Amino acid sequence: MGYAHLTFPKDALFLVTGGAGFIGSNLCEAILNMGCRVRCLDDLSTGKESNVKLYANNPNYTFIKGDIKDLDTCMEACEGVDFVLHQAAWGSVPRSIAMPLFYAQNNMIGTMNMLEAAREKGVKRFVYASSSSVYGDEPNLPKWEGREGNLLSPYAVTKHVNEECAKQYTRHYGLETIGLRYFNVFGRRQDPNGAYAAVIPKFIKQLLAGEVPTINGDGRQSRDFTYIENVIEANLKACLAPSEAAGQAYNIAYGGREYLLDIYYGLTEALGLSVEPNFGPDRAGDIKHSNADISKARRLLGYDPDWDFQRGIQAAIAWYKENL
Ligand SMILES: NC(=O)c1ccc[n+]([C@@H]2O[C@H](COP(=O)([O-])OP(=O)(O)OC[C@H]3O[C@@H](n4cnc5c(N)ncnc54)[C@H](O)[C@@H]3O)[C@@H](O)[C@H]2O)c1
Is 197 in the pocket of ligand 1 (CB under 6 A)? Predict the structure, then answer.
C-alpha cells in the first residue's frame, strides 16, 4: 500500500542522520515530497555531497555537517525535532572485521549519543536502522524476531547493541524507539564504488563498463533483497505507529528470496549482455541464506510493502543506466 497516503503535520521536523547516504538521502527526499521539514546530519564519511546538493535549494531542507560521535553535535541536531530517522553508521561486514574498534566507536557510541540527545530534547519518536545481520548464524528460515543466533561480525555486534540500548531508552526514559532490521536494501543512489560496495549496484556498474563481476562463493547464497521504496514506507509508518509498537525491532524486507546467480543472469539479460561471472572465495562473516518473516511489522507498524524484487530491480537498472 506504500506511503503516499500518510500525512504528517506540515510543520513536523524530521532529523535524518546519515542523510547524505543511500537510504538517508531517499528518506530526505520522501519527507520533502510530503511538504515537511527535514534536517540532515552527516559527516560525509561514506555519504556524498552530491546527495546534499540535491535538496540544498529547498527551504524545508537544512544540512549539518557533523559527526554523531560528538554528543554536542547530536544535541544541536535534535533541537526542536519531532521524529529522528537515525541511519548514520558504517555498513559492510568485511570492513567491520578489518576495523572493529572504529565500528564500536562510530556505530555504537554514535547511536548512544543520538539516543541521549533525543531523550534530552524530547523527540517524539526515534526510528533507527538495524540490520538482518543480528540473526547471525541462526539457520532457520524465515528469520523472525526473537529467534536470533550467534553474531558473526563486529558490524552485527554494533547493530545488536544499538537495539539493546534503544530498548533501555524506551524502558527507562519513555523515549519511543523503533528498530528496523533492514534486509539487503537496493535502489537509486546506492554507491556502486569501492571495495565494500553492495552487490547489486556494483554488478550493474561493472557490467555497464564492460567488466566481468566476481561472485563471492558459488552464487547459490540467497537474500531477501529489499527495494528502497519499501524501506521509506517502513520508516514513515514507524513514526506514526501506536506507542505500543515502541521498544522493539522489526524485520523490514519484502519477504522474498533471491539467489545471487539468478540476480546476476537477470542483470546480464536486462542489459542485453552475455558475460559469465568470475567466482571468488566465500566472504568471512557472511550468512548463506536470508529471508524475512515480515508479519510483525505488518501487524504493529502497518507495513505493507508493494515493491517486489522484480519491480524494484527494473527501477534500479533504469536509474543506473541514466545516472552512471
Ligand atoms: N544498505 C543496506 O542494505 C543496509 C542493510 C542493513 C542495514 N543498513 C543500515 O542502514 C543505514 C544506512 O545505510 P546506507 O546503505 O544508506 O549506507 P550509506 O553509507 O550510504 O549511508 C550512511 C551515512 O551515514 C553517514 N555517517 C556514517 N558515520 C557517521 C558519523 N559518525 N556521523 C555522521 N554521519 C555518519 C555516512 O557519511 C553516510 O552518508 C546504516 O545504519 C546501515 O547500517 C543498511
Answer: no
> Mutate which of 42, 51, 69, 223 to test ligand 1's pocket (most atoms within 8 Å of Cβ)?
42
pTM of the model: 0.98
CATH number for the region 13-187+228-254+287-308 comes to: 3.40.50.720
**Average pLDDT of the chain, as a whole number:** 97
Each residue's pLDDT tens digit, 100-135: 999 999 999 999 999 999 999 999 999 999 999 999
Domain extent listing, the chain? 13-187+228-254+287-308
DSSP string, 230-297: HHHHHHHHHHHS-GGG-SEEEEES-S--EEHHHHHHHHHHHTT---PPEEEPPPTT--SB--B--HHH
* Residue 155 designated active-site: yes
